[in-house]
Amino acid sequence: MASLTPKNSTNGEWCKTRIVILGGGFGGVSTAAHLERLFRRRPDVEIVLVSRDNFIVLTPLLFEVCSGTLDARHCTLPIRAYLRTTRFVEATVHDIDLDRKVVRLSDGKDRSELSYDQLVLAMGARTNRGMIPGSEHAFTFKTVADALLLRNHIIERFERADAERDPDRKRRQLTFVIIGGGLVGVELFGELTAFADQIAPLYQSVDRNEVRFVLLQGGDRLMPEIDPRLADYGTEVLRQRTGADIRTGAKVRAIEPGAVHLPDETIEAQTIVLAAGVATEPVVAALPIQKDRRGRVTVDGTMRCPSRPDVWAIGDCATIPSPSGDPYPTLAQHAMREARVLARNIFDVLDGRPPRPFVYTTLGMMGSLGHNKGFGQLIKVRVRGRLAWFVRRTYYLLQMPGWARRLRIVIDWTFALLFRPDIVKIGLDSEAVAVLREQSQTGEDSTAVIPEVDRRKQDERPSEAIGNDNQARSPVNDPASSAQQ
Hints:
Blueprint: E1 17-22, H1 26-38, E2 45-51, E3 55-57, H2 62-67, E4 76-78, H3 79-82, E5 87-90, E6 92-97, E7 102-106, E8 111-115, E9 118-121, E10 125-127, H4 144-163, H5 167-173, E11 175-179, H6 183-199, E12 212-217, H7 228-239, E13 244-248, E14 254-256, E15 259-262, E16 265-268, E17 271-274, E18 278-280, H8 282-285, E19 297-298, E20 304-305, E21 308-313, E22 318-319, H9 332-350, E23 364-370, E24 373-378, E25 381-385, H10 386-399, H11 403-418, H12 431-442, H13 452-460, H14 481-484
Parallel strand pairs: 1-2, 1-9, 2-5, 9-21, 11-12, 11-17, 12-13, 19-22
Antiparallel strand pairs: 3-4, 6-7, 7-8, 10-18, 14-15, 15-16, 20-21, 23-24, 24-25
Helix pairs in contact: 1-9, 4-5
């Protein structure tokens, strides 16, 4: 990976002012887009966006990717297609040296340094695995890969349950536990119960009444971030689903492969999803600047770091105070509007003008419950049922840039309304890995070597995420497997 340090002005070559944005979510990409427009007549300014992925994900649509309603590609957009003059770098941020004003990057093999004059932190957050012991044994739901792995795993559970004759093992295969009753956990719960309703008739030996979905919320109600009346509506709708077991005040003590431990009960399940809380990216958490108790960067109302005037923060990795002093919620609608103000503030600062504070009133919140039902609050108007479901879909459709992508989403949605979802799993292994696995299961001796890319892919996969079409039951996933063997 070549050095990305700007040219040295001491050699007589022109050195541009460089604005570096770390993070390829809607907050970071929107910031870059606004900066492009503001600096379109400023050839002395260079905008660089760094992200480990070369695409944006419209995360509210990931639930439908998991159920197969939406093609995985259709909830994403290539960053290069969204931006015009911004220089895009696909790399992982290794660390940041604030004193030298340098970002160290890695592309998997080589490392390089990228200097900056103004730095924007828009790296989002990741699932908090430090809250519950054993969280490494649970699925997460933050990325497209998470959605595909979980989909494969769920279909695999139905396949195995269809052939299972032992009632205890079958019960474990058909028990799905979601930890976290916030908006993400509730939407995932609703989508998966609807998915199970649709695919269960395809399995002759699986009765839909045997499929159990457990939602565990540590607080006293689901979705504490939304209006209580809408939360009660969503809870009532989900309680009516076949096999739904919704518990509030259920604090999880620990997770282990195939089991969730509560204070007075252990729930055996082959599918455990962690959707409870987020944590700051380690690179941001390690920075020697002021942060809140959750590790998010504390900035002033202009989104500028008080101790480092050349550092700005936005989105999930920042605590941005509102005029009342309370921090703004970490929602996508806020991040996109923060991006507009942040870009203007950087433009003003480079022109010698003071930055302006970010002031915004939440438009509302929306959620899906599956089966064409939803809920939402639009400013002061509460909507529910099919109308809320339609409004939510329309809103997120219009948030996806580009009419080509929008048309593909509409086509997917139309087919989902007319036909039953398929149960095709997405194979994630190469042929070499599949052959080696078959040989190990049949006892054949093999001296073949797993290609490095596949070995790295396997190492990065969570131990519980074994459920694609080439994988057999693992003792890590199924405590009963050793007995079967």
